[in-house]
Amino acid sequence: MSLDFSVVPDYFGILWTGILWTVLITVLAGGISILVGIAIAVATLYGPRLLAFPLRGVVFLFMGTPLLLQLYLFYYGLSQIGIMLPAFWTGVVGLGLHYAAYNADIFRASLQAVDPGQAEASRSLGFSRSATLRFFVLPQAMLTALPQVGNNSIILLKDTAVLSVLGIAELVLNAQRAISETYRPFEFYFTAAILYYIVNLAMEFLLRKAARKAEAIR
Amino acid sequence: MNTQTPMIDVRQIRKAYGVHEVLKGIDLSVNKGKIVSIIGPSGSGKSTLLRSINMLEDVSSGEIWLDGKQVNRPLKGRQFENHINHIRQEMGMVFQQFNLFPHLTVLQNIMIGPIRLRKLNRAEALDRAQTLLSKVGLSDKGNAYPARLSGGQKQRVAIARALAMQPKVMLFDEATSALDPELVEEVNQVMKQLAAEHMTMLIVTHEMRFAAEVSDQVIFMDGGVVIEQGAPKDVLSNPVEERTRAFLRKHLSH
Ligand SMILES: Nc1ncnc2c1ncn2[C@@H]1O[C@H](COP(=O)(O)OP(=O)(O)O)[C@@H](O)[C@H]1O
Ligand SMILES: [Mg+2]
Hints:
The complex is a heterodimer of chains A (about 220) and B (about 250). With about 220 residues, chain A is mainly alpha-helical.
């Protein structure tokens, strides 16, 4: 059987839907990974020990075990004990939390790298601890963290494919549907790969633009 | 007789890092509209003293008063936080390393305190910031980020940022010692202008000539104690203590 890409355009709709879902999942899970990552970093750095210590443990657990296993555990494992979570949100939140663990480490290091003189200047003006964090320390840490968190977000984009195991109709699952009708795995997997690559390039472009802006300030 | 309450009143403060006592019972006061300079060798505790007045360091004992209000009130937790956040708004602090906020423009650096803490609206804060910028000679730099400024310009912005809170006193910790020599004068000029406007100032400096020029009183510190204090012409030109003489011999020779 020779390669024949002429069938691909017939399935443009399903592939397009797939890539849209992939982008949506990336945005949602990426947002969770950043917000939760910041929350974990702040809590483990400045929070009470009683909270910080177990939280560090949970972070290591998330980083030290496979994403696929975590998703199985949240979806199938929890349903066994009567906790039924919708597949889509299990996937999005699971993916987001997995990357939140990685981002938390980056945000921690970035927060610690902010010159202590910044907090002193803020406190000497009369800003409270939390306002100091919010207006001065955190924004600067975000600028430092930007390249690495951006890289994580690109890896996250690729890992959205794992969500196909939960039956979420992102790009890989939709490609598989097309394949099951046409028996042309190479053509559709290859097309899917190209589509991932395009989104990836777009993300890298935006990231580089943002990083250049951040660099001009620092 | 002088019966007015001093603007800054420091009574017998002590501060130790572990077993190392850095401030060994310091007394000093600055009256309204007066300028007091602190000189002394490196490591004598000058920065620690200034930072203690602003409670960036907490002292082991003693009292710090600002315009009749105790700065280091024995409060706990939230109450202390609220108290200190309020009282710090009355004290402008200028650091050796400027500590401008690099992610904010010059105008934003100056406006954020008045907007967030003094509850000015944007227009009022902008107006105040622009007035201060022209006062420090940087009207054209409002939209620049600190990274684009020279050291002297950064320090002038830092002074404007502190002044924007309309503090009762200004504390300067070696405001010019991180600057290239040719940039020192522009910052000194701004400080002299504040002096002419009768801003109450406590200035840690390594520039004897500047101290002589602007101060009402000079304090010589060494080893965490005040060795000698008085009018600049006495302390700087005619010191009584041998340690003061030795220090000045070293610092006036170049
Ligand atoms: N955070 C700190 N921890 C320990 N020792 C400190 C700390 N800050 C300052 N010191 C010590 O306190 C002494 C006084 O320092 P400082 O107030 O900076 O002196 P100065 O400003 O007169 O040069 C020095 O011996 C310094 O090493
Ligand atoms: Mg010092």
